[in-house]
Amino acid sequence: MTVIASSGVVIVLFFSSEHIIKKENNFTRRFLQHPIFDDKVYKLGVNSYYFAGIANGKIYLGNPTTPLFITEIDTGLQALGRTKISLDNIDHPFRNVQLKVKYPHYYLYDGNIPIIYRGKLGDSIAQTISYGDAFFNQLTVLDSMKFALRTQKRADKQYTIALLDLMKNPKTELKPTILEKQIDGVFDVDGLLATEPETGKVVYTYYYRNQYIVMDSHLRVANRFNTIDTTKTANIAVKKLSDGSTKMNAPSFSVNKGFNLYKDFIFNRSNLKGKHEPSSSWKTSSIIDVYRTDEQRYIGSFYIRNKKGKAMSSMITDGRYLYVLVGNELQRYRIREGAFK
After folding, report:
1. What is the DSSP string of 249-276?
2. What Cα–Cα distance (Å) separates residue 154 from each residue in 52, 64, 159, 314?
3. Could you write out the three-class secondary structure of 287-306?
C-alpha cells in the first residue's frame, strides 16, 4: 500500500511539473525585432561537441568521446582543425575530462580525481598544474593559476562555490554564503557557473529559481539579479538518504537551462513559457532572454529555431555573431547592430 501511495505521489508531481512548464506563466516577454539573422552553417559530422571557448577569431570545441583533442574552427566557418593533446601524466582513473579555453591557454580537467592540466594554444603538451587540491563538479578559469569551482562541503555534502588559487597557501577557499539554500542545499542550489573572459565577471545561474548571481574575479558577490519569471523558490521534491545525501524524489522542471556571457550581457536560455506565447513556437524553438550583468535590466527575448527537430545544445558569441550547436551542425547567426542596446 505504501509503495502504491508513493508511486501515486511521484506521478502527481510529474504531471504537475509538466503542467507548470506548458501552462501560460504570469510574466510577459518583450520580443526583440529581428535581433539575429541566419548566416552560415558548418556540418560537424557528430552531435557530441560542446563550446570550450572563443578567442582571436577562433572557436574551440571539446568532445567527451575524444576528450584529448582540441577542435578549432575559424569564426568564418571555413576550416576545421584538430590537435591531439599529450598529458604529462595519464596514470589516473579519468571519468569526466573537460576542456576550457581562456587565451592564451587551454585547460583539461577532471574534478573527480581531481586534476587540472594547462597547455598553451598551439602546443600539444599539457602539464599538471593542480593535483589533489580540491574535488569539484564545475570549474571556470579566472586566470592561468586561479579558478572558480563548485564543490561540496565535506560536513553536509551541500554545494558551495570555492576559489582555487594555486599561488596561495592554503590554495582552496570556500565561499559558503554565495549559494543560498532553500530546501536541501544540493538540488535547490543547482545551476551553472561561468566567467566572462573580457570583464572577468563570474556568474552563477540557478536551474530551479529565477536568479543569477554576479561576482567579481575574487568571488565577491556584486549583485543577485532576477529573471523575469516569478519562480523565487525552487519547486522540487527531495528525499534524504541514510548516508546523509539527498536525491530528487520526483521529476522536476527547470527555470533556466543554460547561458552565455558577453561583456555586460547574459544570454539566458529559459525553460518557461510566458503569457501570450504560442505553443507552436515553444515546441519548435529555444527561447533566449537577454539581461544585463551590471544592473537589474531585462533587454528582451528572441527565438532560436530547432533544426531538423533538434533543439540547440549550447551557444557562444563574440558580439558580432552568435554561434549555436544544434545536432551535428554549428550554426552562425549575425547579430543586428544595436540589437541589445
Report:
1. -S----SEEEEEEETTEEEEEE----TT
2. 29, 28, 10, 32
3. EEEEEECCCCCEEEEEEEEC
Residue 130, C-beta contacts closer than 8 angstroms, at least 6 positions apart: 114, 115, 116, 164, 166, 171
Q: pTM higher than 0.70 for the full model?
A: yes
Scan for cell 548571481, then name that residue.
213
The three three-digit cell numbers of residue 18, written as one number: 509538466
Angle value at C-alpha 67, between 66 and 73, nearest 5 degrees = 80
Half-sphere exposure (Cβ direction) of 211: Cα atoms closer than 13 Å: 16
Q: And the C-alpha cell for 186? A: 544540493
Q: What count of other Cβ atoms lies within 10 Å of the Cβ of residue 134?
A: 20
| pLDDT tens digits, one per residue of 273-316 | 999 899 888 899 999 999 999 999 999 999 999 998 999 999 99
> How is residue 170 written as a grid cell?
592554503
pLDDT in tens, 201-210: 999 999 999 9
Express each pLDDT in 118-173 by its tens digit.
Answer: 999 999 999 999 999 999 999 999 999 999 999 999 988 999 999 999 999 999 99
